Amino acid sequence: MRILQVRFLIAGVFNTAFSYALYAALLFALGQGRFQTALFLSWAISTLPSFAVQRRWVFKSGGAWGAQYVKSVGVWALSYAINAVFLQVLAGFLNPYLAQIISLTAATANTYLLFRYYTFKHAKK
Question: How far apart are the first and last CA of the chain?
């Protein structure tokens, strides 16, 4: 496993744990029936720390941060859509906390490739 992949994995665990903890706290506060609202808010809030970690630590990018952030939002929008669909289906027969763990795993599977070959494609490896 290359160092870039190891850094991405470590950052991914941190970012996923932060995002899930935020989702769980929001779901608890809003009620289990509001799982899509909790999902949206947790994804919206978690994008900034995730971007900072991806840009500076994982990909060590010094490029134009504005353009990279816009690309990151596009990647997260796709990942969010995948997550929201999986969550909607799974929450029909699973607890929304467990459903989000499964959904989040499925949604984040694509982010490494999209970040690596799209968002931060010109970053130093």
Answer: 14
The Cα–Cα gap between 69 and 50 comes to: 10
Q: Is 109 helix (H, G, I), strand (E, B) or coil?
A: coil
DSSP state of 1: -
Q: What is the pLDDT of residues 86-109, one digit of tens each?
A: 999 999 999 999 999 999 887 776
Hey, where are the domains in the chain? Answer: 3-119
Angle at 107 between CA 8 and CA 101, to 5 degrees: 95
Short-list 50, 8, 37, 9, CA closest to 100: 37
pLDDT tens digits, residue range 61-78?
777 888 888 888 888 898
